[in-house]
Amino acid sequence: MILKVNNVSKHFQGVKAVNGTSFHVEEKEIVGVIGPNGAGKTTLFNLISGSLPVTSGTIEFKGETITNQKAYILCKKGIGRTYQVVKPFGTISVLENVMVGAFNKHNSRDQAAKISKEILKQVGLYEKRDQIGNSLTLADKKRLEVAKALATQPALLLLDEVMAGLNPSEVKEILPLILQLRDEGITIVIIEHLMEVVMTICDRIVVVHHGEKIAEGTPKEIANHPEVIKAYLGDEVSYA
Ligand SMILES: Nc1ncnc2c1ncn2[C@@H]1O[C@H](COP(=O)(O)OP(=O)(O)OP(=O)(O)O)[C@@H](O)[C@H]1O
Predict the structure, then answer these.
(1) Neighbours of 223 (CB within 10 A)
(2) Where is the ABC transporter domain (predicted)?
């Protein structure tokens, strides 16, 4: 088991963004986190990656309790993440953007550049390595987000809506990349609102609603789960 989230809560004043959630992730699994808007998905990622402290509960990574450790320390330990809102360093090149991630593990500029070029080839951005970050299309900015996270050489990669805003053919292009990363040994937790994507690539799915886990299972189990159907088809109509 690579990740264990034990009864974790995050309350913002009166808002119970995450409320007593528990789940685990096995090595090399692809686990989807789904739920309606505001369900607490991104907050969960912020807690796992150390961007926010928990209100209560514990988080274990590779058997070690890592609750409330700083984000840069968790990054060094192997937890990488992308952000829902893509934020490339707009005025430096695509290659330099990725190198920022690579410096997490490598002090030498040459070594960081070498690794970053390999990653750019893998995500299909090598030809655009000298372009400025801001000049990329949204689809390419999403690839760059993945590349920046990969450059930190994560064992566990948290992908936050990397396909939101992409057209169907762009989505089809990025799916094999995610499967390839898993084949290379990276464990993936993915927040994704595109059901066909989640159903296709995930081994298991965790469903959250109002900060609480309401279901967990294989894509098939989740698709037929009464609580999930209620959460999506009840008074909540939009989801992400
Ligand atoms: N820093 C914060 N301060 C106060 N409230 C917050 C903060 N971050 C998130 N929230 C609230 O916590 C709840 C969960 O938000 P979160 O962004 O985790 O949901 P989500 O499932 O990722 O939503 P979406 O699908 O819209 O991205 C929401 O009610 C949100 O307004």
Answers:
(1) 14
(2) 3-235
